[in-house]
Amino acid sequence: MEQLMPQDEHNHLISVIPRTNLDLGVIVGEPLSFDDLFERYASDRVVGASPWETQEREKALLAIDAHNSRATPKASAAPPAIGRNPDRIRSGGGADTVRFPRAKMPFELSIDTLDAWCEKLLGCNPLTENEVMQLCAKAKEVLVQESNVQPVRCPVTVCGDVHGQFHDLMELFRIGGHAPDTNYLFMGDYVDRGYYSVETVTLLVCLKVRYKDRVFILRGNHESRQITQVYGFYDECLRKYGSPNVWRYFTDVFDYLPLTAVVENQIFCLHGGLSPSIDTLDYIRGFDRLQEVPHEGAMCDLLWSDPDDRSGWGISPRGAGYTFGQDISDQFNHANGLTLIARAHQLVMEGYNWSHKCNVVTIFSAPNYCYRCGNEAAIMEVDEQMQYTLQGDDNFTSVRLNLNYACHVLPFHLLGTLLHRTQHIRPHEGNTRKHKVGIKLAFITDGVY
Predict the structure, then answer these.
(1) Domain named Serine/threonine specific protein phosphatases: which ranges (predicted)?
(2) Average pLDDT for residues 227-232, to the nearest whole number?
(3) Rounded to an integer, what distance in angstroms lies between the CA atom of residue 113 and that of residue 126?
(4) Which one of 125, 180, 242, 326 is most buried, by most CB atoms within 10 A?
(5) 428 carries an active-site annotation
């Protein structure tokens, strides 16, 4: 059983770590108020902002060492090598994939039970602790069968970070359609930051168990024991259930989540980015993923790395993972027969951001992030013909996007949603406006604060 961070260290970390700044790196420094931290770091957290100066990058790297020494319980051992359990079965994905342990004590859950739980969760009503235990046991039984590079068929809607913003997730489903009518691929970061991490992750796991061939959930850097002890999910579980048991159930499930997915062998989807240790998808298929996210190495890089305007590999200001340039994404896509890398992990003010001459797209699906950033959110829809169009919200509009990349049209379309701060938690009819690239997107003009 994992050892929890001592309460005094947990409180100390919360007081000194910028709670809005994990997307730049976990920086340990002088205690500051939330507003001071936000004003100091917010501009650097946005894709397209000026990069940090060298001195600031060096300070960030020194700070992460201080964080690791404080955040890791002194008495805890290294994460157990769960993937090396002799009683293990082969995960999906071919003869070269790793063999994982079986999820123990699987519960038989009827379709009626799962449907009732989904209906309850869609109303933002949490399950009981015993129901969560049963759901997580079944989820591990389902997820252990999936590959580290999970194949996904189109049509599918690809989503970025959600971060416990449950009512915005409901708006996402309203725009994109509800499962199983719409197939979904979520690229991680379901918990922390938002007020409803428990309800959000429970609903997504329940949808995965109920519609295992139509809903896919990947692991993000926040699907981690240490990160969730600092950024909200652990505290929320204690507050809502009175014990850390639900937190334990879900963090055990996080170890089983696939690391990446590939849509029709063309679109490579993951939370973070590439790694200098990884040249091929087959290398990823060989990982022992059933463990806590390491502090470094290839598995860590997939969840923490970011694209960058500079060529080659660079030191990440986050203190984990790397930055990678267009030459790196070009080489990786060519070596693996890919047309696109779709990833999340970074706040982008317009909800999505193209980089590396359309080799890479960043998708962020948590509008008005932390209930104050004022950013838009986006989802990416891939249709049956691997064509991409854009459609309005209140008046259905289909526009063919004539953007050429490598002598062919990129195969997806995007929906953007703009959510302003209000005191209301309810969906509203959106107005369609023209995006600066000349494509009509659906923008929601009322939302959650």
Answers:
(1) 218-223
(2) 96
(3) 15
(4) 326
(5) no
> CB atoms < 10 A from the CB of 435, how many?
16
Residues 147-192 pLDDT 10s: 999 999 999 999 999 999 999 999 999 999 999 999 999 999 999 9
- Domains in the chain (CATH in brackets) are 7-71 (no CATH), 82-363 (3.60.21.10)
Q: What angle do CA 250, 190, 140 make, to 5 degrees?
A: 35
The amino acid present at 213, given as its one-letter code, is: D
Catalytic annotation, pick one of 67, 167, 222, 345: 222
Residues 203-223 pLDDT 10s: 999 999 999 999 999 999 999
Q: What is the pLDDT of residues 297-352, one digit of tens each?
A: 999 999 999 999 999 999 999 999 999 999 999 999 999 999 999 999 999 998 99
Contact between 288 and 250 under an 8 Å Cβ cutoff? The reply is: no
